[in-house]
Amino acid sequence: MVSPSPSTLHTAYDSKIEGNVIITRVDAAINWMRKNSLWPMPMGLACCAIELMATASSRFDISRFGMEVMRFSPRQSDVLIVSGTVTYKMALAVKRIWDQMPEPKWCIAMGACASSGGMYRSYAVLQGIDKLIPVDVYISGCPPRPEALIEGLMKLQTKIEGEKSTMDQKKTFMEESA
Amino acid sequence: MSAAADVSKLRESFGEKIWETLEFRGEQTVKVELGSLHDVLAKCQKNLGYEMILDISSIDQFGDDPRFEIVYEIASLDDSKHLRIKAKVSEEESVPSVTDLWVGADWHEREVWDMMGIPFTGHPNMKRILMWEGYPFFPLRKDFPLAGRPTDMPDVAFTGVAPLEGGPFVTSGGAEDVVKREPRARVVE
């Protein structure tokens, strides 16, 4: 094996742009940007919301993951954190907030109640928010500790990392034009 | 003046209208007939110094007749005395509102209506307080299943049936002992 000579390898070398160019896929770049600035919509409905607040506070500090920008307007949020018991009276209000969030959007069911109704097997409580809106990550616990919520958000980051949004877009475009 | 003295005063003025008086560990309970319930409560508020209503609750004695029992907890403002007044209510009857005596009775009576379905006459705003207007059931009645019943009001709210492992667990009202009345898996139509 003869390795290419250094002179041919560096023919395109330009010291002015070297270091300012990276080569990647569009999906990878988009996913990297999305996952590192998740803006949560806090849907605090019960005691889980206290843990959610603790997660956002200095001791646990989710700004280390770029998620500290809690938006109380669904129109500015990426991830809906349903933290607490969803009663039937509240259920359609949660759905309405979810519908107002712009794409791309994700949903985290935080704690037993949001995931499955929890201990409330009753006439008044929706048995899991996934009956109304699609859920990306379920977090167990009653309520989950802030570490568990951070773990769930990191799971969501991993999920976002693997998304192929532009590839899928291209595929549908090609199929439609074919 | 103590609650016990008030009970004998009530006995003097209402006589036969008071069915029973009970004392248990210093707590005074007066059972009155529904027709004179408002008069008894008015006397307590105006003459005997029970300025405050603590709670209004209701009991479903499913299987008995009359079915319901309504319970008033009243107290004096300095908390020196406390009185409990009970009356039996059948399913067709309605209870005179005491919002003219205590303004604070407003929400308590609405909750009793919402959960148990006992109507009040003379209430300024007799509508549901916890469930939404249009919900067709009274969930704290003994014949309502714990899992709930499916309902749907488009754009307002819906309800479903909760999964209960082996349930629903419901009490057997009117059974002779506590063990038989325990909530157990039993299907109620």
Describe it.
The complex is a heterodimer of chains A (178) and B (189). Chain A has helices at residues 6-9, 26-35, 48-56, 88-100, 111-116, 146-161, 165-177, and strands at residues 40-44, 79-83, 106-110, 137-139. Chain A starts with 5 loop residues before the first helix and ends with a helix. Chain A has a domain at 37-159: Rossmann fold (3-Layer(aba) Sandwich). A 4-stranded parallel beta sheet of chain A has the order 1-2-3-4. In chain A, helix 4 links the parallel strand 2 (79-83) and strand 3. Chain A is built from 7 helices and 4 strands. Chain B is α+β, with helices and mostly antiparallel strands. Chain B is built from 4 helices and 11 strands, in the order αββαββββαββββαβ. The model of chain B has no long low-confidence stretch (mean pLDDT 88). Chain A binds chain B through residues 88-89, 91-92, 117, 120-127, 131, and chain B through 130-132, 137, 139, 144-149, 155-160, 162-164, 167.
